[in-house]
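Dear Dr. H.,

I hope your travels went smoothly. While you were away I took the liberty of generating a structure for the chain from your last submission, since the lab meeting agenda had it listed for discussion. I wanted you to have the full record in hand beforehand rather than looking at slides cold. The sequence, exactly as received, is reproduced here:
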Amino acid sequence: MTRQEAEAIYDAGKETVVRVLLMMDARIRALEERVQSLENQLAKNSRNSSKPPSSDGFKKPAPKSLRKKGKRKSGGQPGHTGHTLAMADKPEHTEVHRVKECEHCGRSLADQSVEGIEKRQVHDLPPLRLIVTEHQAETKTCACGHLNKAAFPEGVNAPVQYGEGIKAAAVYLKNYQFLPYDRTCELLNDFFGCPMSEGTLCNIIAQSHTLAADPVEKIKELIEQAAVAHFDETGSRVDGKLWWLHSASTAQATYYDIHRKRGREAIDEIGILPDFLGRAVHDFWKPYFGYDCLHGLCNAHHLRELIFAHEQHQQDWADHMIDCLLDIKEAVDLAKQSTDHLDRRQLHTFEARYQQVLDEGYAQNPLPPLPRNAKKRRGRRKKTKARNLLERLDEHRDEALAFMYDFNVPFDNNQAERDLRMMKVQQKISGMFRTEDGAKAFCRIRSYISTARKNAVGAMDALTRLFSGNPFVPALNTS
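The corresponding predicted structure, in token form, is as follows:
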């Protein structure tokens, strides 16, 4: 604004000056809010928000653990059993290196008895190559004239075909180690002398997708019956478009599926949660609360948001809430060693402390008074992020503190995040799924492999059993 424009406003009278000042004040407030929003975006990283570590770029935040420093030094503790390459009791091959003559005087020692042996072992791979088994079915003609032919074993259907082991290895490399099609075929050729085409590899993966249908359906049922299950979702690209990869898991079972949508429609079609009667642990995404089951909130998310509120907006109550939650977790972890609950006195103490921190937060974040002549607006009243976090911790305190009341409930939703982590690695490597069928196949095979590994069954073993008609299915309680 120039001086002449300012003087013209002044000469126009008091009302004009007031109107212009109010307009300028509103614009300044809007610009301040925008600057604050941009500063908040710049200040967020993987330590104080839900952003993944990959988004930190080269300016990764300095490590800063919320754990209290222990008294023990880092590294292995006294009495810890180490793990190293050990001598084999029965080596497959033994090479004896004889002493033929004295290295000092040259006298022959060939006939002298051995006084002792020093052993060293080399652990190595045998030569890798395909083993071909030929099946021969006899034919015989009976005296009655009927031609009889012996039956081939089940699964031996073609004149020449690949066996269970090489199929399992192909799926292992493609769907577990995330090698692209061409590199998978190249590795199979280099390691095993198996010149497999990409089309054949695609057919093998499709076969494993079909074979895993029943085992994965049983995995879904196991999760539905669990007392506690973890739920999460993440973006995934299919044919260049954003889809959503959903996960449901326990410590012993994992289920993945992919859908065009993220919300209620996708969750209903995928299943598990609509029929789930246990406690669903998740990250406070609203559609999860639409299902009639118990809920538990991820406190790892809360801690990150509290760190941001404390460091970026100087919210002292947020720092006190961090200490409160971690102290409760420490008390629960200690109590788990001897019992399955906190005593009533501890519960009352922690509940009072939790409420005290909330009261402190409300005092620091009061709602701004409405102007007297303000018009009624539809929708929710605008609040700061700190106030929204505060109200969430207040209104959903039972879900946030579920781990304190029920020791079967974990402190966080890290189980689901760990299960999704490798799915994000796949996206980094390949960029996207080319087709919906490929994405669905990948999810089903990973569900099967992840569940097997959680039950101490190796991925190769599980895949070999899948192709042999004896798939692994955990027959245990997944609570």
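Two observations you may find useful: Residues 49 and 305 are 6 Å apart (CA to CA). Residues 1-26 form one domain.

With kind regards,
E. W.
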